[in-house]
């Protein structure tokens, strides 16, 4: 009864945002923020998480208060973890948790990809400059 499912999360919601929202209702013992492990969405949020409170009263207060609350333009779906919705589509007949807009990039992934792109561009510039210096050395020799 202390563990809650939090669904319909916007892709830009991160662990910090969830903790700030749910710490208001009591002591959070554990947060499981789930990401895709493989495939084209690898590393992207799955669109849901599990929050565990230290006691059932805090969990119940969070469930009642946060269910249908808007977070980044989406109504949160809060239930007890054992009542979490299942998605039967996908590979085989193994049920999966519902995934919502997980393919959209998060702010963190955009920052990471932008910085890695810059690093590659910088490396390319350095390589060109080194090649130009070697060429100048050969011409002067």
From TrEMBL:
Residue stretches making up the RRM domain: 2-83
Keyword field: RNA-binding
Classification via SMART domains: RRM
Molecular function, one GO term: RNA binding
InterPro entries: Nucleotide-bd_a/b_plait_sf, RBD_domain_sf, RBM18_RRM, RRM_dom
Domain of life assignment: Eukaryota
Protein name: Probable RNA-binding protein 18
